[in-house]
Amino acid sequence: PSEACSAECSSYLNADKVLVNGFSCPRAGGDARAVYCCGFQDVKYCCDDPHSFFPYEHSYMWWLSVGALVGLSIAAVVLFAFIITVCVLCYLFISTKPRSKLDTGLHLQMAVAERSFCSKSTGVRSQSWSGSRHG
């Protein structure tokens, strides 16, 4: 049979500076697997993870949370500004794009495909441009 493990949580001053008496884990009526003393210097409890005691005050976690929220807020603002900038630049690019093709300055005219003339001497009708003769 395996011997039950237990840990002692020593007495401590909580956040309100009130003395909390020490206790052993697992606590009576608590989870039988919670055999380790966990928490912080000012908040202690029983748990099942041997690496869950931190030698800091609980407010330490609050400052970590505030720092994480500030960092995430700054990152969100930068991302939002980037998205707005991309949208504005896309709008400006599309709105300033010319509606018609560029004017090269060369105006194309309809070329006369066939010029016909009659020869007075032969009476043969010739067509320049097409290269064929109709009779």
UniProtKB/TrEMBL annotation:
Main location: membrane
TM region positions: 61-94
Top-level taxonomic group: Eukaryota
Pfam family, one: Shisa_N
Claim: rRNA-binding is one of the keywords in the record: no
Single GO cellular component term: membrane
Keyword match Cytoplasm: no
Residues in Shisa N-terminal domain copies: 8-52
Location in or out of the cell: Membrane
Keywords annotated in UniProt: Membrane, Transmembrane, Transmembrane helix
Protein name: Shisa like 2A
